[in-house]
Amino acid sequence: MPSRHQPVLMEQVLEALQPERGGFFVDATVGGGGHAHAILSAHPGNRLLAIDRDVQALERAKERLAEFGDRVIFEHAPFSAVVSLVEAAHSGKVDGILADFGVSSDQIDDRERGFSFMQDGPLDMRMDRTKQKTSAARLLADSSEDEIEHWLRDYGEERYARRIANAIVKQRRFGPLLRTSQLADLVGRTIPSGRSGHHVATRTFQGIRIAVNRELDEIEVFLQATPKLLAEGGRLAVISFHSLEDRACKVALRNEARGGDFKNLIPRGATANQSEIRKNPRSRSARLRAIECVSKGGQA
Fold it and tell me: How far apart are CA 150 and CA 156, in angstroms?
């Protein structure tokens, strides 16, 4: 099926990357191909390396970007592999790199992927079902109460992490948690309903998803590697969707800028305006940060 995902912060992304300059670009999380399409359309000479660890997303992107022919190189891989992928696809430094760390609408809306507590499906949550062996169900079945508490507390920022972890372990005496509805119902019975308007299981699902996909480790590797890939004048733009991701991005890009080889283009980050939020409510938590390589010393 065609992608239903709406790319967030499109105007701000294009302003940050300036693809109209022309050059070689990387979309490290190509997803449905929305941002990639805009980058390729900005200049007739632009070339793009499109990366995604989700096979289904990559197939949607191939369909969306077919009009650009061999100007696009597709790679099925996690974005932490960006260095080796760039070296294989391009002989020099790159002019722009984009990563959108959020879960796509296509993934959330597909009940079989198990990312959402809003509809029943297998408790999966793997970004790459072809290579990742450990689903959310397997992780919760095999992990200790302390490990589960750690993921819920540190990755999900769940204040009731201990209580939920204890309930998950107790549930295993009666049978494994195999469905998203089972986990959501368990959390609902275990802790008081939230007052923020968010579903009571929101933070639990976030914490487990991050653990299943090792998302913060992937982001750390990516943020360390990508500045070195930029040509002088090249730009790195990253979109995050929760405080853990944004904190990592903010610190990493700020530290690069302190060295003098990079300029922090959006020190406070850019967020969606009310018009975009009305059209796409999932954009409300998105934040964009970006740096520019201003010295060849940044390529060392």
Answer: 9
